[in-house]
Automatic annotation (TrEMBL):
<dbReference type="InterPro" id="IPR050194">
    <property type="entry name" value="Glycosyltransferase_grp1"/>
</dbReference>
<dbReference type="Pfam" id="PF13439">
    <property type="entry name" value="Glyco_transf_4"/>
</dbReference>
<protein>
    <recommendedName>
        <fullName>Glycosyltransferase subfamily 4-like N-terminal domain-containing protein</fullName>
    </recommendedName>
</protein>
<dbReference type="InterPro" id="IPR028098">
    <property type="entry name" value="Glyco_trans_4-like_N"/>
</dbReference>
<feature type="domain" description="Glycosyltransferase subfamily 4-like N-terminal">
    <location>
        <begin position="13"/>
        <end position="178"/>
    </location>
</feature>
<dbReference type="GO" id="GO:0016758">
    <property type="term" value="F:hexosyltransferase activity"/>
</dbReference>
Length: 240
C-alpha cells in the first residue's frame, strides 16, 4: 500500500512528536510512504528522515504558510506518487489536502487525525467564523476522521463538524521503555535541580489553550503555604 502523510511541519509539539513515532513504525516492507510538509521543517525533521522516511517539503520563497503553493505541490505529488491513502495531521494540512484533491478523477482514501478541539484553536486566530466554515467543508470530504480522545470526538459531533459514525477514537500509544524514569537523585544531579526543593514540571507548547495560567494561579496558592516548591516549564510558543 502507498501512503502519503501530510502535516504542517515536524516541530517539537505533542502532535508532531506522535506523528514521528507513528510514521517511523510503519512496516516499510509492505507499505511505501512519503511525508509532505505543508508549512516548514522543524526540529524533528532529521529524526524522521534518519529513520528512512522520505520527506518532501513545500518549496516557497518565504517562511510561514503559502497555501496556494502547498496545494499545487501536493496535487503534483498525488498525481506522481498515486497513493492508496492520504493521511493528514492537524487542521491546516487537512484543509490543504482537501484543496489538492479537488477535481481529481482518482481519489485516495482520505483520513485526517486531530489532537485538539477546533474551537479552542479557532479562538486564537483571526477571521474565526470564516475559518470555521472552511474547516467544516474540509472535514465533510473526509472518509474518516481520527481523534485521540473521546472528548474531542464528542465536541466535533456536538458542534456539527462531522457525524459520529465517521469519527474513530484511537488513543495515543506510549513506549514504556522510553519513558522508564531514572533514579530521582541521579536526575537531580544531571539536570542541576535543587535537592532541597520539591520539583514540579510541565512539558507543553506554550499556547493559551493549554491553560498554563491555571497552573500558575494554583502554584501561587501553594507557595503561600510551602516555600520548598519550584516549577520548571519546558516548551516554547507565543505565551513564553
Amino acid at each position: 500500500m502507498k501512503i502519503l502523510y501530510v502535516i504542517d511541519h515536524l516541530g517539537g509539539g505533542g502532535a508532531e512528536n506522535q506523528f514521528v513515532e507513528t510514521v517511523s513504525r510503519v512496516n516499510r516492507e509492505t507499505h511505501e510512504i512519503i511525508c509532505f510538509l505543508t508549512e516548514g521543517v522543524g526540529i524533528r525533521h532529521d529524526d524522521l528522515s534518519g529513520r528512512g522516511v522520505k520527506i518532501i517539503k513545500c518549496v516557497k520563497p518565504r517562511q510561514g504558510r503559502d497555501t496556494l503553493r502547498a496545494v499545487r505541490q501536493l496535487r503534483q505529488l498525488v498525481r506522481s506518487f498515486r497513493p492508496d491513502m492520504l493521511h493528514s495531521y492537524l487542521m491546516y494540512s487537512a484543509f490543504v489536502s482537501n484543496l489538492a484533491l479537488l477535481g481529481m478523477g482518482r481519489w485516495p482514501v482520505f483520513l485526517a487525525t486531530e489532537f485538539s478541539s477546533p474551537e479552542r484553536i479557532l479562538d486564537e486566530v483571526r477571521f474565526r467564523f470564516l475559518k470555521k466554515a472552511m474547516l467544516k467543508w474540509s472535514y465533510g470530504h473526509l472518509d474518516r476522521l481520527v481523534t485521540t480522545s473521546t472528548g474531542v470526538k464528542e465536541e466535533m459531533v456536538s458542534l456539527g463538524y462531522l457525524a459520529a459514525e465517521r469519527i474513530s477514537v484511537i488513543h495515543e500509544g506510549v513506549d514504556l521503555e522510553r519513558c522508564s524514569p531514572a533514579p530521582k537523585e541521579a536526575l537531580r544531579r544531571e539536570l542541576g535541580l535543587p535537592e532541597e526543593k520539591k520539583v514540579v514540571s510541565v512539558v507543553s507548547s506554550l499556547v493559551e489553550r493549554k491553560g498554563h495560567r491555571y497552573l500558575l494561579e494554583a502554584l501561587s496558592g501553594v507557595l503561600g503555604v510551602y516555600d520548598d516548591v519550584v516549577l520548571y516549564v519546558l516548551g516554547d510558543g507565543p505565551e513564553r
